[in-house]
């Protein structure tokens, strides 16, 4: 067992390590603004502010609201990390956030099923690509939140082990913000 | 609060008696499974599938499955995911032996060597392809390539592998990972696990690009130009996917190095004292963090253009947009390659001259300004597509960029001025690099002139120009750096006579090959053509001979370095008398680099009488930024928790 401290070191975070990984995570998230900037510019270039009359505004709003709610709930999970029944409270919040996120994704899948815009049209191609990007990011975010839920179930809530949950929430909030921005660009502007 | 330690991974299971499958093998297996799963799934649900088992859409998803399977198999599953989710794992990091280079590792030195190893693999493959291209060009008609598109595919694979799997990967993934933490007195990097996974994306990328012809030819060169790609078979898909994997890997390196430099510097290593090499790395890491996501998005759009299909960059879309998006990234990319080389010049010259670095601030400012200007010049690659009024600003900024580049020369020459420089092998490579890059830069000033550009565009002048800049900067400086740091990397050194002879042969072969590219271009030799007018044959024939010699010279250097790595004479601890922190620990450095945390107490680039040793290794304990838990068995996070735990900091 000569390696035991080594093993523990790889999992535990010191305060400075915590600051370093948090900086990295936030910086990484900042770089992920770039893809959306490119996509939004492309949208502007290809079809300006055109919104297809067939686009279902109701579903657009529903998806954005669900994601906003989901992000808010996820953020509450971070605030619930202290206190007597922290583990349960964090778990419920993460699960609710993931559930709301899944619902939001279903609204997109349902809209895709309606095929109201052709991917060969100018509006359609940007619509599919931007909502597709939202979906890819949401899948990644859900995987992260899922890992946090799994980990949370088998760990105590010591802060140095809470970082996984925190990181997944940061990313999830970013996913929600990108989603809402996409909604504004595709459905409103 | 002892409960913090009762988590599953702190009591790891003993290593199983039966040896597990070697990770690389398992990775291949899981990659195959991942490919089959997703490919078959897409074939099953795709309403437009037609006959073949592998279609454009299916291969894209299959590739994603293969890449994920590969990473899971190499270590993502048992070394990262299991502990992350709180399950026990059997994974244990191997501490010595060659096998640890073929496994998932978290030691930045192992990861750095893995990057170098894969990069050299990419260089040899791409170099071999260059030899085939030069063989083809010995005759004005098609010989070994049966169709022009075959030749073009070869050019594309050569360029793509050289740019994305060698140049960036060697300088930043390899040298950066290995030396940045050592040079800032850090004991490990911040994102060591992520970095250990990321390096395994490099073989994914290399193999993907190399085997792209399985899906058919692609004629676009390393830029994947649209709408040209629209006429190609599906080979271009593997170009986009392969580059996606390679850029993702480099993106992880960039993030990790920036965070490490931000948070793991030794006490006393202020930004003002930061080694030049580290400055070079940080500046280009920032460029990478901005532009790599941009090009990745562009490539995903181009991919969708092809497989859905959509019309972003086709004739009814906006082909010019693809060119813009590509070169917005593409020009910073060439500086991502060159700036670390400039930094290496000014790292090695003061050491070999034993003279203080001249104008240190200017050298740093030069690097930073090159970085900033590099985002303003992209359109000089597409003058032939622009209006006059659009050309001029780009022409202007392009010529302006030679000023901050000049700062790197100024510091180097100022340091060399009236010094008794030791003209040994590393120094020789650096001087050669400076000469070559100068030629590359001067020929670039010609190209930045719109009128000349319209004539020279698409000719071998351009090919000569960028090989002088790229090989001149990064390959020559890279060899210089490896000879310089060989005692650090291996504890062994090389023989000066052999080293210098090989350097001189390489230099001569390089110049005899590529200087004639300019002449070929002026005489009307086009790029991207396997067949050409017969009057150009004599020169092409003779250029090819020199190219073969150059290829052999590169190979000779690589073999010689490998030989010295194992069999060279023992080197002293600090054979060149350098002052940067990497030399203040044993060679090669131990697992956590420094037995005790070094402290920086003076400038790293001052030489001569009265200057002190800048690195002391008596500092108590560790810098706050390194992990306390390794040293203090009583360590408990709660004492240090950022909110309300007790310690502020
Ligand atoms: C071993 C020596 C090398 C030789 C003999 C060589 C030769 C060539 C030739 C003949 C071409 C294509 C010309 C054409 O358009 O038909 C080419 C293209 C290219 N080479 Fe090299 N090369 C060498 C090394 C390198 C290195 C080290 C790099 C970068 C690190 C590099 C980067 C490129 C790039 C980016 C292209 C452009 C590909 C394109 O047009 O898309 N080469 N090279
Ligand atoms: Cu350029």
TrEMBL record, chain A:
Compartments where located: Cell membrane; Membrane
Primary location class: membrane
Pfam families for the chain: COX3
Transmembrane segments: 20-38, 58-75, 96-114, 126-149, 169-188
Membrane topology summary: Multi-pass membrane protein
Entries under Gene3D superfamilies matching the protein: Cytochrome c oxidase, subunit III, four-helix bundle
Heme-copper oxidase subunit III family profile domain mapped to chain residues: 1-189
Entry keywords, A to Z: Membrane, Transmembrane, Transmembrane helix
Recorded family membership: Belongs to the cytochrome c oxidase subunit 3 family.
Protein name: Heme-copper oxidase subunit III family profile domain-containing protein
Species per Swiss-Prot/TrEMBL record: Sulfobacillus thermotolerans
UniProtKB/TrEMBL annotation, chain B:
Subcellular location: Membrane
Signal peptide per UniProt: none
Keyword vocabulary terms for this entry: Electron transport, Heme, Iron, Membrane, Metal-binding, Respiratory chain, Transmembrane, Transmembrane helix, Transport
Membrane topology: Multi-pass membrane protein
Record-annotated Cytochrome oxidase subunit I profile domain positions: 96-601
Main location: membrane
Domain of life of the source: Bacteria
Pfam families: COX1 (PF00115)
Stretches that traverse the bilayer: 60-89, 110-131, 151-176, 197-216, 236-263, 357-379, 391-416, 428-448, 468-486, 498-523, 543-563
InterPro entries xref list: Cyt_c_oxase-like_su1_dom, Cyt_c_oxase-like_su1_sf, Cyt_C_Oxase_1, Cyt_c_Oxase_su1_BS
Entry keyword annotation includes Aminoacyl-tRNA synthetase: no
Database matches in SUPFAM superfamilies: Cytochrome c oxidase subunit I-like (SSF81442)
Metal-binding as UniProt keyword: yes
Protein family membership: Belongs to the heme-copper respiratory oxidase family.
Role noted for this protein: Cytochrome c oxidase is the component of the respiratory chain that catalyzes the reduction of oxygen to water. Subunits 1-3 form the functional core of the enzyme complex. CO I is the catalytic subunit of the enzyme. Electrons originating in cytochrome c are transferred via the copper A center of subunit 2 and heme A of subunit 1 to the bimetallic center formed by heme A3 and copper B.
Name recorded for this polypeptide: Cytochrome C oxidase subunit I
């Amino acid at each position: 067992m000569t390696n035991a401290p080594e093993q523990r070191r790889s999992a535990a975070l010191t305060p400075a390590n915590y600051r370093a990984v948090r900086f990295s995570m936030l910086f990484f998230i900042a770089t992920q603004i770039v893809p959306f900037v490119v996509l939004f510019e492309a949208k502007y270039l290809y079809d300006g502010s055109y919104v297809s009359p067939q686009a279902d505004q109701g579903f657009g709003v529903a998806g954005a609201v669900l994601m906003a709610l989901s992000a808010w709930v996820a953020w509450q999970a971070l605030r619930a990390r202290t206190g007597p029944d922290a583990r349960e409270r964090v778990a419920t919040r993460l699960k609710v956030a993931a559930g709301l996120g899944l619902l939001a994704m279903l609204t997109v899948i349902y809209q895709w099923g309606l095929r109201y815009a052709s991917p060969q049209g100018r509006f359609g191609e940007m619509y599919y690509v931007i909502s597709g990007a939202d979906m890819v990011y949401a899948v990644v975010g859900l995987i992260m939140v899922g890992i946090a839920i799994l980990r949370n179930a088998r760990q105590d809530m010591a802060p140095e082990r809470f970082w996984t949950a925190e990181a997944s929430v940061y990313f999830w909030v970013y996913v929600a913000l990108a989603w809402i921005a996409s909604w504004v660009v595709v459905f409103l502007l | 609060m002892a409960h913090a330690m009762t988590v599953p991974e702190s009591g790891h299971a003993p290593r199983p008696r039966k040896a597990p499958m070697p990770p690389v093998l398992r990775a291949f297996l899981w990659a195959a499974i991942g490919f089959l799963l997703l490919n078959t799934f897409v074939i099953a649900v795709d309403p437009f599938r037609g006959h073949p088992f592998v279609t454009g859409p299916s291969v894209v998803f299959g590739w994603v499955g293969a890449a994920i399977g590969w990473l899971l198999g190499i270590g993502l599953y048992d070394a990262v995911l299991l502990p992350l989710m709180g399950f026990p794992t059997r994974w244990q990091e191997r501490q010595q032996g060659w096998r640890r280079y073929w496994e998932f590792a978290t030691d930045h030195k192992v990861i750095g060597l893995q990057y170098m190893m894969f990069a050299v693999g990419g260089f040899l493959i791409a170099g071999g392809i260059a030899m085939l291209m030069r063989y083809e060009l010995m005759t004005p008609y098609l010989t070994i390539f049966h169709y022009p598109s075959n030749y073009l595919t070869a050019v594309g694979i050569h360029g793509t592998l050289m740019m994305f799997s060698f140049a960036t990967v060697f300088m930043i993934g390899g040298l950066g990972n290995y030396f940045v933490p050592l040079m800032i007195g850090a004991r490990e990097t911040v994102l060591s696990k992520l970095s250990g996974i990321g390096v395994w994306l490099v073989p994914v990328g290399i193999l993907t690009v190399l085997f792209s012809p399985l899906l058919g030819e692609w004629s676009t060169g390393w830029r994947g130009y649209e709408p040209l790609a629209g006429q190609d078979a599906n080979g271009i898909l593997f170009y986009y996917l392969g580059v996606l994997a390679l850029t993702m890997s480099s993106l992880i390196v960039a993030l990790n190095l920036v965070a490490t430099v931000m948070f793991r510097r030794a006490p006393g290593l202020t930004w003002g004292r930061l080694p030049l090499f580290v400055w070079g790395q940080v500046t280009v890491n920032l460029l990478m963090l901005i532009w790599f996501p941009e090009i990745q998005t562009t490539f995903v759009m181009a991919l969708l253009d092809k497989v859905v299909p959509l019309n972003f960059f086709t004739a009814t879309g906006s082909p010019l947009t693809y060119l813009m998006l590509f070169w917005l990234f593409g020009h910073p990319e060439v500086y991502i390659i060159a700036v670390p080389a400039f930094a290496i010049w000014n790292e090695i010259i003061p050491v070999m001259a034993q003279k203080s670095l001249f104008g240190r601030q200017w050298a740093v400012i030069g690097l930073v300004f090159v970085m900033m200007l590099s985002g303003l010049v992209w359109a000089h690659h597409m003058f032939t597509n622009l209006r006059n009024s659009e050309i001029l600003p780009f022409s202007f900024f392009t010529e302006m960029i030679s000023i901050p580049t000049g700062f790197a020369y100024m510091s180097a020459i100022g340091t060399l001025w009236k010094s008794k420089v030791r003209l040994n092998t590393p120094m020789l490579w650096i001087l050669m690099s400076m000469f070559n890059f100068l030629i590359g830069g001067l020929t670039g000033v010609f190209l930045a002139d719109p009128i000349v550009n319209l004539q020279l565009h698409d000719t071998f002048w351009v090919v000569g120009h960028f090989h002088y800049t790229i090989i001149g900067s990064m390959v020559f400086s890279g060899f210089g750096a490896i000879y310089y740091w060989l005692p650090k990397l291996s504890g062994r050194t090389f023989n000066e006579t052999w080293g210098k002879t090989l350097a001189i042969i390489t230099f001569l072969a390089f110049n005899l090959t590529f200087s004639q590219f300019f002449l070929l271009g002026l005489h009307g030799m086009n790029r991207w053509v396997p067949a050409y007018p017969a009057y150009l044959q004599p020169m092409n024939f003779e250029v090819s001979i020199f190219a073969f010699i150059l290829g052999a010279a590169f190979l000779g250097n690589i073999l010689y370095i490998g030989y010295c790595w194992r069999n060279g004479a023992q080197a002293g601890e600090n054979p060149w008398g350098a002052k940067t922190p990497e030399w203040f620990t044993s060679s090669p450095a131990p697992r956590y680099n420094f037995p005790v945390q070094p402290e920086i107490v003076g400038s790293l680039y001052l030489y001569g009488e009265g200057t002190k040793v800048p690195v002391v290794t008596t500092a108590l304990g560790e810098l706050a930024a390194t992990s306390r838990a390794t040293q203090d068995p009583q360590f408990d996070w709660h004492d240090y928790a950022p909110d309300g735990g007790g310690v502020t900091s």
